[in-house]
Amino acid sequence: MANNPIQKWHQVVQEKNFKLLSEILDESVTFFSPVVFHPQKGKEITLKYLSAVAILFNVESFTYTHELITENMASLEFELELDGVYINGLDLITWNDEQKIIEFKVFIRPLQGINKLHDFMGIALKKS
After folding, report:
1. I need a surface site. Which of 41, 80, 97, 103 has the fewest CB within 10 A?
2. Domains (ranges, CATH) in the chain?
3. How is the beta sheet containing 85-95 ordered, strand by strand?
4. Radius of gyration from C-alpha coordinates of the chain
5. Which residues are 85's β-sheet partners?
6. Cβ atoms within 10 A of the Cβ of 75, count?
7. What pairing do the DSSP bridges indicate for beta strands 73-82 and 101-109?
8. Axis crossing angle, helix 111-127 with helix 43-56, rounded to the nearest 10
9. Is the pTM higher than 0.85?
């Protein structure tokens, strides 16, 4: 199971290393946001969203609490606090045989957390 992009993903989150993020995303990657209705297809848009999230979640309270990793998929549960709002979420990450991420789905709870994330992401994406 060690031959997967999850360790590198953790490095991206910890170091805000967007060059490494670009290296582990497949050109055809699809990003599923908890606040955007349509899937975001392609490396460029996925980089934009994941970079904004990595910066946004750069708070002391952010932590991955559980991980489940299989042959080509990982489930990473996380939690953090933004402006006093508790957020609990899940990243579902799928990769191909080349160890490139082909699908990234983010689930968030509770509703107040989704609303706070929506507000912050709107600001972050306008800056990028």
Report:
1. 97
2. 6-127 (3.10.450.50)
3. 40-41, 25-32, 101-109, 85-95, 73-82, 63-69
4. 14
5. 82
6. 15
7. unpaired
8. 110
9. yes
